[in-house]
Every structure is written in structure tokens, then in C-alpha cells.
């Protein structure tokens, strides 16, 4: 975990990694809501390569995703294709949230190995000293289609919380 008060060389490395992650996720170099309070978790492989990155920030509100019923499909693959392509929306009623997941990324050759889940578990234990965050206290910034599938699986529901990482409050699609 890299914190805002860590040495400059560590923060510089995090900036380099964030730039690469943003490019891979298709983000325009978007600023964090409150960079001075962001916590960055890096997953380092045995060969000392960064294979995962999670950037979290303090937020106050999230908005519940409104789950659309999945039509009857014949295979799990068809279900995934539908989930990736469907439009989605969220409630306009804010709900309290503590932690915003601004970015969560795993190197594509290392996906589906529980790296993102392990980073989130570590974050939940360390985001607030002496406290373990519930899944209900976490919101995800505008997730990619794969991010939405991950959040649904991790939270155990398609009705997880989202937030807009540009202002930590309103979602505008």
C-alpha cells in the first residue's frame, strides 16, 4: 500500500503506474477527487512486476445500480456477452459510502486469479485504521463492462454502489 505521505520516489512510481492503468482502462488522465488522501494498493508478482493496482479514495455517497433482469440464455458465455453490452443506470438517491474504488486493474494475462479480490480484501482491512469495511460501504467509479462483472461477483449482487470519481458524488451518464 502506498499512502500520500510516503517518499516521493514511491509516489512517482505510483503516478507512472496510474498513467499506464488509465491508458489500459481507456481513461483520459482523470484527476482523483482528493489525491492527497488516495490509497494505492499494488499487487507485485514473484518476478517483481506490478500485476495489479487498486486506487481508493474517501467519499461520502454512492448510488445503487438498478439491476436489469437478464433474459433467458442458453449458456454462461451468452450471459456474459449480454452483461457486457447492456446499458445500465443507477438510482438518483444517494446512499452513505466511505470508500470509493477509483480504479481497479489487473494485468490481462493475470486476470481470473483472485488478484482484484485479494486487493479489495486488503483494502477493506486497511482503509480505516482499526475498522473492516463492509461491501456496502464501498462504491465503484464508473466501471468498465469487465469491472461491472467483477463488482457484481465480488459484492454478490448487481445492485452494488457506484460513484463518479471526478467529484465523488453525482453520476452523470
Task: Describe the 3D structure.
GO terms for molecular function: protein-lysine-acetyltransferase activity. This is N-acetyltransferase ESCO acetyl-transferase domain-containing protein. It comes from Sphenodon punctatus (Tuatara). The protein is α+β, with helices and mostly antiparallel strands and 173 residues long. Helix content is 29%, strand content 23%. The chain contains four helices and eight strands. Strands 1, 2, 3, 4, 5, 6, 7 and 8 form an eight-stranded mixed beta sheet that branches. Helix 4 links the parallel strand 7 and strand 8. It is globular. The chain starts with 7 loop residues before the first helix and ends in a 10-residue tail after the last strand. The C terminus is likely disordered.
List keywords for this structure.
single chain; alpha+beta; eight-stranded mixed β-sheet; disordered C terminus
Percent helix, as a range, is 25-40%
Give the distance, in angstroms, between the N- and C-terminal Cα atoms. Answer: 32 Å
Mean pLDDT: 85
Report the portion of residues in β strands.
Answer: 15-25%
Short structural description:
One of its GO terms (biological process) is mitotic sister chromatid cohesion. The chain is built from 4 helices and 8 strands.
Furnish the topology, listing elements before pairings.
Blueprint: H1 8-25, E1 39-44, E2 50-58, E3 61-66, H2 76-85, E4 89-90, E5 95-96, E6 99-106, H3 115-126, E7 138-141, H4 145-155, E8 161-163
Parallel strand pairs: 6-7, 7-8
Antiparallel strand pairs: 1-2, 2-6, 3-4, 3-5, 3-8
InterPro entries: ESCO_Acetyltransf_dom
Protein name: N-acetyltransferase ESCO acetyl-transferase domain-containing protein
GO molecular function, one term: protein-lysine-acetyltransferase activity
